[in-house]
Design brief:
The protein has helices at about 30-40, 50-55, 65-75, 95-100, 110-115, 140-150, 160-170, 235-250, 290-295, 325-335, 350-355, 360, 375, 380-385; strands at about 5-15, 45-50, 80-85, 105-110, 130-135, 155-160, 175-180, 210-215, 220-225, 265, 275-280, 310, 335-340, 365-370. By secondary structure, it is an alpha/beta fold. The structure holds NADP nicotinamide-adenine-dinucleotide phosphate. NADP nicotinamide-adenine-dinucleotide phosphate binds near residues 10, 52, 87 and 167.
Length: about 375
């Protein structure tokens, strides 16, 4: 299983805080938004909080609506999503409501934390607690790999707190941000903020993409997705979003019985979309997607040197219809990172993948994200079966 889709969810004050410094949890949302959150929980395979939130808020983290729980069961899912927490220290209260309500739980921890947690007498059995050590340090990729591979989690809702949100966003691992902005000021410098200090992908000039705003009672739900490409072979959440867009563009190509339908997007290092294209664009029967996208750009654009090309199908390294194949166009444009969903099959060119090694041979990083292969193939089914 690939890593789960990671959705960061929080209610935040107008001045950017998650809570105040008082002993009681500050309720930032109203009833309508709590119900919306319940709906998002019900649509998730797992819900994660950091140990800080577990200690401060003592949440139960349940799907509260009986109808939503019944719908999960009718769909063959467990009544409650898996509950997940992360703690390096293992210093958690065994009486916390988290352990004693809902269905299965898992705590990701360090070797040292696991030793401590195993002495606490946490619940066992079908709704018990699985203590998973990911090694001497708690690294997020290991947690997400385990959730995907071992727990089969496809959709992970992260409900804070600030440290967890900050790490996942800064490490390029968050697929979506859902903020409920409440008409409240906290005004305390020591209160926990939604996002902390440190380096965020692309720096302060890069922008997330807004996908939705919606009033929910007196709060406003804002949904953003990340845009900044990963670096090298590391796949960021934004890489997956751009590759999904390339696959969607492939579906817009005029059909052909003799050529693939492909979509491509060129994205700058700060997450700005520079150009997009698709096969047979603008009535050109032999246009390739990467070619169509690159043709829209000034070849002297300095952003190309650090840009990423997303292509639903591996860029061609040989073609009869034009003097230069797309791999050559990409290299000549100065682009050195290509993310693709599908290695070229031998449908039109024998041994296509071996021949396509040209990008890597000339110093470009080629990242294949196979979880999108089915989407890339979909508009080409008549060619590849
Ligand atoms: N408004 C909202 O929607 C909302 C939602 C959730 C939480 N909150 C608020 O957020 C506050 C808590 O946030 P927080 O930032 O203090 O805590 P947090 O993010 O919930 O948890 C931080 C803790 O998680 C563990 N952890 C996280 N990442 C780790 C890593 N990479 N390696 C090792 N351990 C890691 C550590 O536990 P150990 O210390 O055990 O090692 C760390 O102390 C509370 O005030 C809560 O009310 C608000």
């Amino acid at each position: 299983m690939p890593q789960p889709y990671v959705l960061l969810s929080a209610a935040v004050s107008l001045d950017g805080y998650l809570d105040d410094t008082g002993p009681e949890r500050l309720l930032l949302s109203g009833p309508a938004d709590f119900d919306r959150v319940d709906e998002v929980r019900a649509a998730s395979d797992a819900i994660l909080i950091g140990a800080g939130t577990l200690r401060t808020d003592n949440p139960r983290l349940l799907v509260n609506s009986p109808e939503r729980r019944a719908a999960r069961v009718a769909a063959g899912l467990p009544e409650y999503p898996l509950k997940v927490t992360v703690s390096a220290s293992g210093d958690l209260d065994p009486k916390a409501q988290f352990w004693h309500t809902g269905g299965e739980k898992v705590v990701y921890t360090t070797d040292k934390g696991a030793k401590h947690l195993r002495t606490l007498g946490l619940p066992t059995g079908p709704a018990g607690v699985d203590v998973v050590s990911v090694g001497p340090d708690l690294e997020w990729p290991a947690v997400l790999d385990h959730l995907g591979d071992v727990r089969g989690v496809g959709r992970l809702m992260v409900e804070g707190g600030g440290r967890v949100h900050t790490q996942l966003l800064q490490q390029g691992l968050a697929d979506e941000l859902q903020l409920a902005v409440a008409p409240v000021f906290v005004g305390e410098a020591e209160a926990p903020r939604m996002f902390g200090t440190g380096a965020y992908p692309g720096g302060p000039t890069s922008r997330l993409r807004l996908v939705e705003t919606r009033p929910v009672g007196d709060v406003v739900l804002i949904r953003y997705v990340p845009t900044v490409p990963g670096t090298g072979h590391a796949v960021s959440a934004a890489d997956r979003h751009w590759l999904a867009l390339a696959c969607a563009l492939a579906a817009e190509c005029p059909p052909s019985g003799t050529a693939f339908s492909v979509g491509a997007v060129v994205v700058a290092a700060d997450g700005t979309e520079l150009a997009r294209g698709h096969s047979r664009e603008a009535g050109d029967p032999v246009a390739h997607a990467e070619e169509a996208a690159l043709a829209k750009l000034d070849p002297t654009d300095p952003r190309l040197a650090s840009a990423t090309v997303y292509s639903s199908l591996e860029p061609c390294a040989r073609r009869a219809s034009r003097p230069a194949p797309c791999a050559r166009l990409i290299l000549d444009a100065g682009v050195r990172r290509v993310v693709t969903a599908w290695r070229e099959p031998d449908t039109f060119v024998p041994d296509a993948t071996a021949r396509n090694a040209v990008l890597a041979e000339e110093g470009a990083v080629v990242v294949v994200v196979p979880e999108y292969e089915a989407r890339a193939k979909e508009p080409n089914r008549h060619l590849v079966g």
